[in-house]
Design goal:
two-stranded antiparallel sheet, mainly alpha
């Protein structure tokens, strides 16, 4: 049998039928068509990111070989569908869903931040629970103090600039620059 290009295969178009082909050539070409069509279906189903969240158990059953899928009874297929439906992740509602990309000259990074209720069944236990708790409290205090200092500095600078723009002297003949000079 001569090698044929992909365009002269009987299955080059998904709408073409194999009925017009001679029986001898049909057996090998039919197997090749099934492999090509199933490979195309698999890549179409698995690579479509837009439909990832809408995938159903039938999408995954379509990945099975047609002979294997045909060998299952209706009850078996229903059981497999129920099993797949229970394992497909269902996204939970998020309070914050922040996604963005950072393009640099040589590489690209992405940042994802989700905030939502934890619906996982099993809690993770840290290796050292006391140290983890102390560390979490210390980091939370440091973050709160940092935010407080940042807000205080911003408010101080804002009111200082407003005071300077209105030519208001709180202390007679002294300014912030004079006070900073004293500390040198």
């Amino acid at each position: 049998m001569t090698t044929s290009s992909r365009s002269d295969l009987p299955c080059s178009s998904p709408h073409q039928s194999l009925a017009s082909q001679p029986q001898v050539a049909r057996s090998t070409d039919e197997n090749l068509c099934e492999v090509l069509n199933s490979a195309q279906n698999k890549s179409r189903i698995m690579n479509s990111r837009a439909t990832y969240r809408q995938r159903t158990p039938d999408d995954y059953l379509a990945l099975l070989d047609t002979k294997i899928r045909a060998s299952f009874s209706d009850d078996q297929l229903d059981s497999i569908r129920m099993l797949l439906a229970s394992t497909i992740p269902k996204p939970s509602p998020k309070l914050v869903d922040l996604r963005f990309e950072i393009d640099l000259l040589l590489s690209r990074f992405y940042v994802v931040l989700f905030v939502g209720k934890d619906r996982r069944k099993k809690r993770r236990s840290p290796l050292h629970p006391i140290l983890t708790r102390i560390g979490n409290v210390a980091i939370a205090i440091a973050i709160l103090v940092g935010i407080n200092l940042l807000i205080s500095l911003g408010l101080f600078m804002f009111f200082y600039l407003v005071k300077s723009a209105l030519n208001i002297d709180l202390f007679h003949e002294t300014h912030l620059a004079d006070q900073l000079e004293r500390f040198r």
